[in-house]
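Example for tutorial group B:
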């Protein structure tokens, strides 16, 4: 009889030990999964936090190099960041990023640059409603562009750029009064060249 009791006690001890090991294994697995998720999130945050909030850059206007302060701007819906010269203002909505001049503290929304995922026809209709004529160009100014068009009307000139990023279609457009040509073009180049995509 004593032998039977010893066997029962031994079996109970063995079963309790196995259950404890399984619980420890499950806890370790859950911890590993949590740590992996945390690392992925941290990587995304690090990518954006690596960008300085402000910095100084050189740009060339009428053959002369000038130093200008630029500020970092994010657009969550369009998934990018870029730098905008301090003498420009940004007014964006969920579908578009818009920057316009503020030379000598005089805002001018008619000298603007926009980045959007709106379809091409919608943009063309908006430009034509503003009185612009859109014409084809013989060559592209940007390596990443799939299509570029000239935008113009009396006293104004500009450009429309269509391109793809990670299977999404984007457009960059800008226009400005002719007398802003050198100053605006240099600033537009800064905004476009400094784009960092987050997808």
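The residue assignment follows.
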């Amino acid at each position: 009889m004593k032998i039977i009791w010893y066997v029962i006690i031994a079996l109970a001890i063995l079963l309790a030990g196995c259950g404890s090991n399984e619980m420890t294994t499950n806890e370790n697995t859950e911890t590993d999964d949590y740590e992996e998720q945390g690392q992925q999130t941290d990587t995304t945050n690090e990518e954006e936090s690596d960008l300085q909030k402000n910095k100084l850059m050189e740009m060339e206007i009428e053959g002369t190099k000038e130093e200008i302060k630029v500020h970092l701007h994010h657009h969550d819906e369009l998934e990018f960041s870029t730098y905008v010269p301090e003498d420009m203002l940004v007014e964006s909505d969920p579908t578009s990023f818009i920057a316009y001049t503020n030379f000598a503290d005089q805002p001018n929304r008619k000298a603007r640059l926009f980045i959007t995922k709106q379809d091409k026809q919608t943009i063309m209709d908006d430009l034509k409603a503003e009185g612009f004529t859109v014409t084809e160009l013989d060559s592209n100014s940007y390596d990443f562009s799939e299509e570029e068009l000239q935008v113009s009307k009396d006293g104004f000139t500009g450009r429309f750029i269509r391109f793809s990023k990670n299977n999404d279609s984007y457009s960059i457009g800008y226009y400005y009064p002719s007398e802003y040509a050198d100053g605006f073009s240099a600033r537009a180049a800064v905004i476009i060249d400094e784009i960092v995509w987050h997808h």
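The chain has two domains: 1-50, 54-197. Compare this with the pattern of hydrophobic and polar residues in the output above.
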